[in-house]
Amino acid sequence: MSFFPQFPASLNIAAATPVAGTALVNGTPSLLTWTAPNDGQQHYAVMIVTLNVTSGLTGGAIQYAYTNPQGGAASGKQLIAGASGIGAARGFDGVLVQAGTTVTISQTAATGGAAVFNGAIIGA
């Protein structure tokens, strides 16, 4: 007996930004969402993100929210802290999610600057 979920033979990108990314400004809210199939099974979501700060971003952390297989809501899970310097940061995480629930990647309020977000949710 395995303690790990059975993963499909091929992984699919469930949601992704365009190749050029999404320009973030002060307070860009929801960035990516994916809803797990409503089939009574647990599913998984892997979030892979990068943030390229182009102009002294203040605040603007990248975080995610989801519902675990037992129905517990988790929000404010950080993928990338708010960045103040010019340059790139990356974040990665994976979680098991309840069937029929949504995984959301969002930006917290920023008070200045700009950045470009690239990301994907791999879900099954």
What characteristic shape results from the CA principal axes?
Answer: elongated
SS-based class: mainly beta
Helix content range: under 10%
Count up the helices.
0
Count of the domains = 1
Tally of DSSP β-strands: 9
% residues in beta strands: over 45%
Mean pLDDT across all amino acids: 84
Low-confidence stretches: none
Separation of termini? Answer: 21 Å
User: Order of helices and strands, N to C?
Assistant: EEEEEEEEE
Report the sheet with the most strands, covering strand number, pairing sense and barrel closure.
5 strands, antiparallel
- How large, in whole angstroms, is the Cα Rg? 15 Å
What can you see in these coordinates?
The model has no long low-confidence stretch (mean pLDDT 84). The strands form two sheets. Strands 1, 2, 4, 7 and 9 form a five-stranded antiparallel β-sheet that branches. A four-stranded antiparallel β-sheet has the order 3-8-5-6, with no helix packed on it. It is built from no helices and nine strands. The two termini are 21 Å apart. The radius of gyration is 15 Å and the shape is elongated. With 124 residues, it is mainly beta. It has one domain. The chain has strands at 13-16, 22-24, 30-35, 43-59, 62-67, 73-80, 87-97, 102-107, 110-123. Helices cover 0% and strands 60% of the residues.
Task: Please give a quick description of this structure.
By secondary structure, the chain is an all-beta fold. The chain has one domain (23-118).
